[in-house]
Design brief:
about 110 residues; mainly alpha; 7 helices; about 0% strand
Length: about 110
């Protein structure tokens, strides 16, 4: 996985690196942890079980990690999920989960 590959998928590595004090090795070390499938699976499961309060906590945490690393294509659907849950909106969470997984999996292919 390289900075160029991440950029090609839509990450804003300039921002992400700035949050990591410009330390590329450290930034790249954080990416696999942020993309850990278990975190995404837990959010998926909680939403499908309609455990919205718990899902909000997971989504909010995941949103923060993705924002800090500027993994924008993954961040955006997670952010929509988070804000929908915060506002207790009746959204199509299945569609957002699909977008989340698609983006996450594209990045995970680099690992």
């Amino acid at each position: 996985m390289t900075i160029d590959e991440l950029n090609a998928l839509g990450a804003n590595t300039k921002e992400g690196l700035a949050r990591c004090a410009g330390k590329e090795a450290f930034y790249l070390q954080l990416i696999p942890k942020a993309l850990d499938a278990g975190k995404f699976t837990e959010l998926d499961t909680l939403l499908k079980e309609k455990k919205y309060d718990e899902a909000f906590e997971w989504a909010h945490s995941l949103k923060g990690v993705l924002a800090n690393l500027s993994l924008t294509p993954v961040f955006e659907p997670v952010s929509e999920i988070t804000e929908g849950l915060r506002a207790k909106k009746d959204l199509n969470y299945e569609e957002l989960l699909n977008k989340m997984w698609d983006a996450r999996n594209r990045f995970a292919e680099l690992l």
